[in-house]
Fold:
Amino acid sequence: MKIFKPLLFVFSLLSALVLAPVASAGTPQTNADGVTVIHLDEYNGYFAAEETIAGLKAGTYEFVVTNKSEKLVGFQIQNYKTHETLEMFPLEPGEQKTARVTVTEEGVRYRCPINPTPWYDIDNVKPAS
Structure:
């Protein structure tokens, strides 16, 4: 029984360390002009979002994309339903660019058109309040 408490402590500590990055995703901030900002870091073959992208509402968004890889990458964002390209640009290593787009209830999807990355679908956009 004496070993149970230290094992439980170690398990709790490890669980907290593993879950901390997941739990630290922030809520997107909306500027005074009504534009919501989402930061995306692009690595070799995947994106990481600094803010949670679940439960977005229709409106104007700025996707601030930073190239964290050591090669040329790109960013393409489309309307989820129609596949109309809303913005597309290349990014050099370390470069940061912003795509300002209107997200409708139809949703959006994004990817890197240069590196093979899957589409990241945001198809559960709620109506604007």
